[in-house]
Amino acid sequence: MSPDQPPLSRALAAFALGDEPAILDRRGRRLAIPPIVDSVAVILAGNASEAGRASRRYVHAAWPQAAGPGWTSGSDAGLPVELAALINAWMGHALDYDDALPGSGHLSVPMLAAALAAGDAREQPLSGGELVDAFLVGFEIAAKTGMALGVAHYRRGWHTTVTAGTIGTTAAAGRILGLDRDRLTAAFGIAASSVAGLQRNFGTTTKPLHSGLAARNGLAAALLALAGVSSDELAIDGERGLLDLYGLGEARPEFLRTLHEPWAIESPGTGLKLYPACYAAARPVDALLALRARHALHADDVEEIRLAVPKNGLHPMIHHEPKTGLNAKFSMEYVLAAALADGGLDLASFEDAAVSRPAVRELMSRVRLSEDRALRPEDPDALRSSPATGGRVVVELVLRDGRRVEATVAHPKGSPSAPFDRDDLEGKFMTCARFGGFAEEPARAAFDALMELEDVDDVRSVLQTLRPATAGIR
Amino acid sequence: MSPDQPPLSRALAAFALGDEPAILDRRGRRLAIPPIVDSVAVILAGNASEAGRASRRYVHAAWPQAAGPGWTSGSDAGLPVELAALINAWMGHALDYDDALPGSGHLSVPMLAAALAAGDAREQPLSGGELVDAFLVGFEIAAKTGMALGVAHYRRGWHTTVTAGTIGTTAAAGRILGLDRDRLTAAFGIAASSVAGLQRNFGTTTKPLHSGLAARNGLAAALLALAGVSSDELAIDGERGLLDLYGLGEARPEFLRTLHEPWAIESPGTGLKLYPACYAAARPVDALLALRARHALHADDVEEIRLAVPKNGLHPMIHHEPKTGLNAKFSMEYVLAAALADGGLDLASFEDAAVSRPAVRELMSRVRLSEDRALRPEDPDALRSSPATGGRVVVELVLRDGRRVEATVAHPKGSPSAPFDRDDLEGKFMTCARFGGFAEEPARAAFDALMELEDVDDVRSVLQTLRPATAGIR
């Protein structure tokens, strides 16, 4: 820390509470709408996931008398706000269908969940404009915290969705709760003492729980600071502070000194997922489906599916013989085979029964994967992209009639360079709402309202219309 | 991890759920009674602390409709069990008056708080015998986790009370909740994803909050596992697991393979505090008060107070001009001066007003501190002692009449080698109860019952008699 600079937790508080038009401008605010709408969508879908069922068992057993003002997507009754934040964010990551920011994880869902729950903790209604601003500063701080913690932090085994995410949710919740600069400074220090989450738990249902912990712990830090709990103002950048302990000697605090220049949500930008699978599958599946459509192919026409990705681009796709839908999200063989067989990839593609279909298993045996240095990311330090999202991928199909057809994709649909249009967003929103057991018409009305979020006076009034249509979802 | 050994989380689950008489023997159980009784005492005292006030503001603002079965010391109404665990353990560490295990922190309070709250989450009452057994296995696992994380973990800046503590509270809560081995194995993995707590926050009210987080997070991990949340069974000892990330290459998993041989609560044993200050002050103050009594001295008789401690034995006593009671707990000058002036050191000694008394400030200027290698701990690797608790200290008083008197202390009153007797425990219990605003007679009856804890059929029935006598404590 330079002696002429304020401690980072103080600087972050000043930024998070800022309201200068230059910071929260109209353009910045519009950037926040798609990830917010997308996050609501995946929270709705999560209701019908294994995590959704576990969360209901947990509430039933651990919180039998719980009541409070916190909105949760699957419940008519309100819950205590910290519990609502936990459950909404947990649901939103349950299907691995939420957006991803290279290097910093899945930040939008915990940011939205913490902000909504903070709004429910206040007396006055939360307006759409307030929500957008809080989301934007929280997302920015989380993204830059991820970059500041550095590559070593992620490589060593921490899950940035929750570690970096928690610092951002503190900002989002603190802004909405009306903390002053001193209290928000203290909240960052409290939050720094709750930063945890092991990559070792990837592939288990603790992974989506991490998103819930990011939302709950940031909100709790803000509420505790509001109640007068103190912390050390050097808890982010001091000796034995967050960057010191978790940055492993390679922390880059400068990322937290240069906020919104540009907004991380603009550059590198967050990628919205078209498919409920690991983001590394997005480009290969886009390329395959483009070939399938362009050449009017069926599975029977294809002798072999060849995929080439940048060096290390297959790293997260660890399952080659997936047994469950959760495994299959991390199986490149499965996503390519299922996309070719079905002409698409949706939530139903990752139900356990779908994964064991004999025709798809047969197709999987005809997938050939390779890595190719020539397809490398343009960003070798992987701060703004990764081998799974930088560079480009090539899919080549060898057809039974002897032809070979090929497609190259650098930017998958939903990424900052190929963003969803309104129809794409609406399609995903409605698919998620149906999957989660929500009634069609209120969901469509909520989507329309959320697309004009800045005109909404009371966000809660929009969300409350989202009622489960299916019995069994409380 | 050796290939012929089960994953540590599975081995810990088997140990935590064991009921072999050789493990939970009568002697082991008796060892648990003093720290349990002492922990209840400090939880009661914490009610009247700054943390107690903050906790009530937090509950009021963040949990306005909260209700549940969880007992908390200062409240007539029950709270949700996770919140009760948080608040009880937070209160118990609020005054830095709870016991300390060299190398692994302040483990008894979070263990007790998590166990009590887990009992409240069940239908059947929690018996004293069950509480003792759960406390014992939780304490043991936490203590050995602290040793397994190693010296580097603590030196780097993690607060073992919460990092190691969380693994232990998971065991204590899981045993009481009746988890089977698979569920408790999963619970350890979930808990490993919530291990955090920065020493940077020492000296702020986030430090006692860490104890609360240890209790809440361990209980939550057990409840989440009970609801079916899965985790990786190598989350403790696998690559990118707890020991790998937090042990900084120096983890010693063997400590978690050799549980209860001996019980950590027996050797090195946990030190109960006679004074509500940093444990490094215990021996110097004992020595000074012994001299004061033996020679019938008053402050006016003393020209100079000389203290010699082992190398690094002054390390935690960071405040030389304390301004608040919280500072003063970490000021060697203050504790010696106040003890000489008052003939003792109690909770009132650390109220803010007491710290600024001119007579005491004047005495502080006559304190001379030094470190002496010859007084070194017998345990140079500091796993079972520290410079603040190993070796011995020497206090020399230079009197105005020219005499010099000297006392040496190796083991302070309350330590395993000089344990509290029943009167000592009762004295501290009643002092804490009065300070916390609790009525005298029910407190004394509760003390008597807790001393015979194994005969108690329903622990809750004992604790519920503890009612605040003072208005303002809810």
Keyword list:
homodimer, 474 residues, mainly alpha, 2-methylcitrate dehydratase PrpD, 60s Ribosomal Protein L30, Chain: A, four-stranded mixed β-sheet, 19 helices, globular
Question: How would you describe what is shown here?
Answer:
- Chains A, B: Residues 275-435 form the MmgE/PrpD C-terminal domain.
- Chains A, B: Residues 34-248 form the MmgE/PrpD N-terminal domain.
- Chains A, B: InterPro entries: MmgE/PrpD_sf (IPR036148), MmgE/PrpD_sf_1 (IPR042183), MmgE/PrpD_sf_2 (IPR042188), MmgE_PrpD (IPR005656), MmgE_PrpD_C (IPR045337), MmgE_PrpD_N (IPR045336).
- Chains A, B: GO terms for molecular function: lyase activity.
- Two copies of one chain form a homodimer.
- The first copy, chain A, is built from 19 helices and four strands.
- Chain A is mainly α and 474 residues long.
- Chain A folds into two domains: 8-269, 2-methylcitrate dehydratase PrpD; 279-409, 60s Ribosomal Protein L30, Chain: A, CATH 3.30.1330.120.
- A four-stranded mixed β-sheet of chain A has the order 2-1-3-4.
- In chain A, a hairpin with a 4-residue loop joins strand 3 (393-399) and strand 4.
- Chains A and B meet through helix 3, helix 8, helix 9 and helix 10 of A and helix 3, helix 8, helix 9 and helix 10 of B.
